[in-house]
Write a structure and sequence with these properties.
about 250 residues; alpha/beta; Alpha/beta knot; Trp Operon Repressor, Chain A; 2 domains; 7 strands; binds 6-chloroguanine
Amino acid sequence: MTLFPEMITNALGTSIIGRAMEHGLIGLHAVNIRDYTLDKHKRVDDYPYGGGAGMVMQAQPICDCYQAIREEISKKQGRKARSPRVIYLTPQGQVFHQKMAEELAQEEELIFLCGHYEGIDERALELIVTDHVSIGDYVLTGGEMPAMIMIDAISRLVPGVLNNKESAEFESFQDNLLEYPQYTRPEEYEGKRVPEVLLSGHHAKIEAWRREQSILRTKERRPDLLSQAKLSEKEQEWLKRWEDVDFVL
Ligand code: 6GU
């Protein structure tokens, strides 16, 4: 639900998410809230009661838009659908993270409500919103980009959306560890060589090196994550030896 549907369809219609839609693995409908206004000038916002800066999005177009979407879902499912989660994108929400993406990827239907101007009439939020979500502690002009970020993060977890090469299996945030460094040809570039172990063909050694790199990289760049990572006894011992080293990466 947005006042700028083409922003969503243009951005997500390309690349991996676009391909997933073409393959019918996910569906995306950017619904224009303005289509549901009863105002003869097609207005969807008004001045805030009590005064103050900016405009507030009115409850009526949003709630009618929501009801129309629910009816679409019921029609598609051929029965009265249970209430889908409605995610309101707002800097006042819980901060989005990978676990939340995994949880939301289990849902059959999701509705994202994108606000603009100074906000949305609280009564609309009370009536339809189930989750308030922020994408981080900074302020944006609207909820569209946060919604797209969430849709991208959630969609790539839907089975079949990523192919083998893009597979989500080994990557950042798996285990709360960051991804290890990657290299491709040539073996030497600007005098910098690819780490020898990667040219060795010794798979066990390569796996061990990558695991080490993941751990060290997380320690260096995201120490807050490392405290939540599951490390073996041996790895914890090994990591202690790097405790006072801060020039490795
Ligand atoms: Cl979800 N919306 C807006 N407008 N700003 C944000 C945000 C959301 N998350 C962080 N900043």
